[in-house]
Every structure is written in C-alpha cells, then in structure tokens.
Amino acid sequence: MRAVFPDGSVEIMPTPAAVRKAQDMGLDLILIAPTAEPPVAKAMDYGQWQYEQKKKQHDAKKKQHVIQVKELKFRPNTDDHDYEFKKNHAIRFLKEGNRVKAVVQFRGREIAHVDLGKKLLMRFAEDLNGVGAVEGQPRLEGRNAHVIISPVKATASSKEKQKEQGQGPAQAAANPNPA
Q1: Are 48 and 27 in contact (CB under 8 A)?
Q2: Does residue 6 have a cis peptide bond before it, meaning omega lies within 30 degrees of 0?
Q3: Within a domain: residue 173?
Q4: How many folded domains does the chain comprise?
C-alpha cells in the first residue's frame, strides 16, 4: 500500500505497518484510491475529513440554481390590463432564469374559439421575444392550450462591452448611457 502522511512523505509499505504508523501519529488511515496499483491511503483525522466532505457537498448544493416552470393562466377573453400584468410577471420570471408556461383555459362554449386562445399565446410569445425563446408552437391538450417559453441567455458580446466600459451588468442596467 502507498501511504501518504501529513508531513508530505510517501512510503510503500504493508497495510498493518501503515495503520500502525498512522495510529502512532494519532491519525486514521483512509483509503483514497483503492483501484490504484498499489492502493493509495492517506493518514488524516477521519472526523475532520467527513466534516470537510459534508461542507463541500453543502456548498455545491447551495450554489446550484434549480430551474422552475412558472405557470400563467389566461382565458380567451383576457382583458388588456390583465394581459400586461401577467406579461410583466413572465418577464420577471424569465430574468430570474425560470421557464414560463402560458396556459389558455377554455370553459364551456369557449372551446369553440380555440383560434382566439392560440392567437393570444402567439401575441404573448412575441411580446416576450427579447427576454425568452418559445419552445415549439402552442398546443391544445383537452380544454387547455399552452406554450412554454425559456429564458434567453445574455450574449457574451454585450457582457464584453460592459466590461470594456468598466461597468458591471447591474451598473450598465442602471445607467444605459454612460456619456
């Protein structure tokens, strides 16, 4: 077994001798690479090692962003003010990095006017053109028509221009004309 010790020394020795040497130092012998030839073990405090592994997993989990699908419901005869209100919500959701599912519900005899619902969804998708990209055409499933819109990533060239001007993304948004 190849044993690695805290002082930086690396020795190839039998397993019982490596365990004994680690115990003499007050440490545990942890198998790092069992499939290597010879297997590699490191002398360290096992409790401290477990703590560090848990902390790494926690930090990795904290940094990840889970993309959610936010759903906005419309009716075929949704008023302009309600439409604008929901459109602004969709823009906020897309800027946060979430996907938006716009649904038009048909109730009763409204199902006879599917064309109005699809027209509404197409208008919605066009209004969100700069912030989001449509995934496919509006689809009718049962009494609902829906379309899914994904956020558009900011282009690298616009980020480079902001860096050249010495502004971060937040500063550039607050001050579009630096001159």
Answers
A1: no
A2: no
A3: no
A4: 2
